[in-house]
Amino acid sequence: MSFHVIVGAGAVGSTLATELADSGHEVRLVTRSGSGPAHPHIRLIRADAADRSALLPHVTGAAALYNCANPPTYALWERSWPPLAASMLSVAESTGAVLVTMSNLYGYGPVEGPISRDHPLTPSDHKGMLRARMWQDALAAHEAGRVRVTEARASDFIGPGVGPNGGLITRYGLAAVAGKPVYMFGDPDAPHSWTYMPDVARTLAVLGTDERAWGRPWHVPTAPPVSARAVVEQAVQLAGARAPRVRRVRRGMLRPFYPFSALLRELDGVLYQFKQPWEIDSTATSDDLGLYPTPWDITLESTVDHWRHAHYQQGSGQKSKTS
After folding, report:
1. Beta strands in the chain (DSSP E)
2. What does each C-alpha distance from 100 to 71, 92, 126, 219, 289 come to in angstroms?
3. I want to staple 7 with a disulfide (CB 3.0 to 4.6 A). Which of 44, 49, 148, 297 is the partner?
4. Model confidence over 146-193: pLDDT tens digits?
């Protein structure tokens, strides 16, 4: 019987592992710490996936290998991603497992109008260049007939399992439901796509098992864009909290802090996504694979429940499980 191997137990890896396990698949979840969700069909494995020899025995015989890892800070991307991506590509080639990579929209660079999967990769900063190069290397191996690969691309994550480090909207939402001022980067009223975490997992599960998906990137089905201000306003209404006090943080206000904050310096390279309308076009995924986004009202209700629970845990002094 085939099984699936996932590298990374963050929001994406854990949600995918549960999705596959609940569907009856056997799952091996690989992390350096051996962490992950408890489930009778999920086996937690402690190994360094960037070490090919350490990863290979756990993938031999697998139907698919999912790259759901993510270095904890932007500053580690250039050092951590290349060996990890190379190891997983090599292991997939050796074992015959389909390589499914979770990615984002950085590789497209600044784009006006909806972004389809066929839009050229024209990244404008090193993070986007790195993500584009990872896909191009994998695709070249696929086209050479050495391995089967595919990639899922999503906009900013929203929903259960997404912690404060998983995206700006979660930081905004946690502040709003707590009744605190919300400091927003870019234009708070620019329409923006938010990709629901359960939709991410559903899409990845299909990409690993449907041969129609292989050799192409796919955009995770995502609801129509909503501005960051509108998201937090709708959220506090559902949560029964007071109207959020939104403060816009302009780029010029951040520059003096760049010498002291690697995070702010790296954030500067992708702020274009929040200064203008930013919309992901996922119609090809719906038309070709029959996957559709969760309705926005359900997405928002689930997200607000997650934010309220996280706020309760923080207020009671407990460590949030979403961090």
Report:
1. 4-7, 27-31, 42-46, 64-67, 98-103, 149-153, 156-158, 182-185, 194-196, 217-219, 246-249
2. 17, 10, 22, 13, 15
3. 49
4. 999 999 999 999 999 998 888 899 999 999 999 999 999 999 999 999
Distance CA 269, CA 240 (A): 36
Residue matched to tokens 């119609």: 283
Q: Is 150 helix (H, G, I), strand (E, B) or coil?
A: strand
Let me know: does 294 contact 157? Beta carbons within 8 Å. no
CA distance 97 to 277: 38
Token pair belonging to 82: 């290349």
What does the CA dihedral 108, 235, 321, 268 come to, rounded to 10 degrees?
30
What's the CA angle centered on 147, arms 144 and 152, to 5 degrees? 110
C-alpha 220/C-alpha 202 separation (Å) is 9
Determine the CATH number of domain 4-156+194-219: 3.40.50.720
Helix (H, G, I), strand (E, B) or coil at 217: strand
> HSE (CB half, 13 Å, CA atoms) of 296?
12
**pLDDT tens per residue, range 256-288:** 766 767 777 777 888 899 999 999 999 999 999
Q: Which CATH architecture group holds 158-193+224-277+294-315?
A: Alpha-Beta Complex (3.90)
Per domain, the residue ranges of the chain are: 4-156+194-219, 158-193+224-277+294-315
Q: Which of 23, 56, 60 is nearest to 42 (CA)?
A: 23
Residue 248 in tokens: 């816009």
In terms of pTM, does the model score above 0.90? yes
Q: Which amino acid is at 234?
A: Q
